Amino acid sequence: MRRLSLSSRLALLFAACTAVVSLFAGVLFNRASEAHFIELDQQQLDGKLIGLRRALQDLQPAQREARLADELSRQADLSLRITGTDGQRWYDSSQIPKDLPPQSGLSTVSHAGTDYRVLNAPLYPDQTDSPRLTLLLDITHHQHFLQRMQHLIWLTVGLSALATALLGAWAARSGLRPLRRMSAVARGISAQSLNARLPEAQMPPELAEMAHSFNAMLARLDDSFQRLSAFSADIAHELRTPLSNLLTHTQVTLTRPRPIEDYREALHSNLEELQWMAQLVNDMLYLAKADHGLLMPKREPLELADETDVLLEFFAPLAEDAGVKLTREGHARIEGDRSMLRRALSNLLDNALRFTPAEGYVSLRIVDQASAVRISVENSGEGISAQLLPRLFDRFYRADPARQEGSSEHAGLGLAITQSIIRAHGGQIHCESEAGWTRFVIELPKGD
């Protein structure tokens, strides 16, 4: 069974609400009309009762019947019965039913398809053994009015429900036009049209937040797709140079017979390129695991001063050859993966040494804060432009224009891998740079 559309559901809901409200209002009006008629009948019968008491007060029994007939002739829908204290009927109109309620006060009875309002009262209220007077008022016209009112109520309920359903369907369809616009934009989304956006300013307040979220989703998809496209192009660009070198070198080697040493040298050269390509593929797989949340660092207590001293000892010969001073300050304990954190810090130290001029310095500082540990790797040298800082952690990105071509030494993945490792530990990394120095700052949460 096909599900109802949202417009149809809203239209039916409007119709149901209108029908309930109309029916409730109609019932209240009908009850109010009925109560009003009862009040009018009560006033009319009370007035007639007072008039009959005055008319019969000083008359002889022989004169009473003529006077009563005269009083009743003035109102055709009124009937009268007078009963003595002994139960004998002194006067009885022919239209009065035989069985009437004995209680005093106002009541309603039906007889032969006719409704009557009945009032029982003593003829002489100041006497304890007074004859009883019963007045009956034909209220058939009242009942007809109430019946017509009920029919009108049901007709009004039906017509109002139908009209509200039609108007509600139109209003719902008009009100849901922004949703259809969103659906049209969603249908038109493809890899070539991820830059499409919804006009948030034209959306009603209820849908403005949804439109904003939808546009933000499209922006994220567009950014991810652009990054993926750039990543694919960078991979092709990085692999093209070593593959071209391998093909060219192999083809040249095979153009003519050569001594065994030439073949050995060619194989060693090809091996270096293949090893670099293998490392590049491993790094890309590592980043792919990080993107899918598959990097699960081990949690073991680490003394950062000891771990960084091991790294500084490893890089000490390189720093000495380059004339760069290596220093470390501070200490702290955290819980993390030793091999992963060593790899991240090694990438930062390697970058710092490569871009630090002779007689410069590379300083590693550890600051133990209240809820986190701050690790900074700072080096002297030419600063990085503020426009380039946001892109430093992009894959295959090199701030040095001289390294834009593929190289078997550095592929531009080190900082991206470092960022993935730090994020896998729940931390953050950013770069600060001005003229004369550059600093990479890591913030890692402390273990429990």
The portion of residues forming beta strands comes to 15-25%
* Whole-number mean pLDDT: 80
Instruction: Tally the beta strands.
Output: 12
Question: If strands are numbered along the chain, what order do they take across the biggest sheet?
Answer: 2-1-5-4-3
List keywords for this structure.
alpha+beta; five-stranded mixed beta sheet; single chain; five-stranded antiparallel beta sheet; 12 strands
Outline:
Strand 11 and strand 12 form a beta hairpin. The chain has 9 helices and 12 strands.
Describe it for me?
With 448 residues, this protein is of the alpha+beta class. It contains nine helices and twelve strands. A five-stranded antiparallel sheet has the order 2-1-5-4-3, covered by helices on one side. Strand 1 and strand 2 form a beta hairpin.
Topology:
Layout (H helix, E strand, L loop, with lengths): L5 H51 L4 H13 L4 E6 L5 E4 L12 E7 L2 E9 L9 E7 L1 H36 L1 H11 L17 H49 L6 H32 L8 E4 H19 L2 E5 L3 E4 L1 H17 L6 E8 L3 E10 L32 H11 L3 E7 L1 E10 L3
Parallel strand pairs: 7-9
Antiparallel strand pairs: 1-2, 1-5, 3-4, 4-5, 6-8, 9-10, 10-12, 11-12
Helix pairs in contact: 1-3, 5-6, 6-9, 7-8, 8-9
